[in-house]
Specification:
The chain is an alpha+beta fold and about 220 residues long. It has helices at about 1-15, 90-100, 105-115, 120-135, 135-150, 155-165, 170-180, 190-200, 200-215, and strands spanning about 40-45, 55-60, 70-75, 80-85.
């Protein structure tokens, strides 16, 4: 099952030393917590953001019950932006953060906010971007877990092959193998054969050989 597979993946990541940068900053308190002092902010809900020059983002919090996202941003003044990812302004801002914001903790929080609509083409593209390009291991794993739950197609398959072939972290590569093994076919055989011989990590080589036996 997915939960068992995820558990195996997390265990493999721990065994392989998956540690650097998992959490760059503490996870933001949920809306209902009440244990932290909310910043003094000016409301800016549902407005056009095209004329706003945002200089920084200090918090992204998603209410898991309503799906409402609250972003605390620094512009000409501090603003509180609230809305769901169905709001084009909120969605565009979150996608931009995932792709280019320098703080990995904020990128991860933004990614979590977007994952309520993973089938949205723009959001799916942001997940793929994070998985293939983000420098933070935790962000990449979040993106991987989100993408593995989507429908399988040629694009998704190629993304996971790229992760298996190129990601510098062996734990991420093992996670990619686990996903690919669930959808293994004859087209995957050359990749598995090559990496079973040449991957620089012994455990990854073993996982590829094991997946290869399941296909041949």
């Amino acid at each position: 099952t997915l939960s068992v597979s995820r558990g195996v993946t997390v265990l493999a990541l721990l065994v392989l030393g998956f540690s650097a940068g998992w959490l760059v900053r503490p996870r933001a308190e949920q809306f209902s917590s009440g244990r932290t002092t909310q910043p003094a902010v000016s409301p800016f809900v549902g407005a056009d953001l095209s004329g706003v020059r945002i200089s920084g983002i200090s918090q992204v919090v998603t209410d898991p019950e309503t799906g409402v996202v609250r972003l605390t941003v620094d512009a000409e003044r501090r603003l509180a932006l609230e809305g769901t990812v169905d709001d084009p302004n909120i969605q565009h801002l979150l996608v931009s953060v995932v792709k280019s914001y320098e703080n990995a903790g904020i990128r991860r929080e933004s990614l979590e906010a977007l994952m309520v609509r993973p089938q949205n083409p723009e959001i799916r593209a942001a997940l793929i971007h994070a998985l293939l390009r983000d420098q933070n291991l935790g962000v990449r794993l979040e993106a991987l877990e989100a993408l593995r739950g989507l429908g399988w197609d040629a694009v998704t398959r190629q993304v996971f092959v790229q992760v298996l072939e190129r990601d510098i972290n062996p734990g991420i590569r093992v996670a990619a193998i686990n996903v690919l093994a669930e959808h293994a076919d004859a087209e995957l055989l050359p990749v598995l054969r090559e990496l079973a011989r040449k991957d620089r990590n012994a455990y990854v080589r073993w996982k590829c050989a094991s997946a290869l036996r399941g296909v041949e």
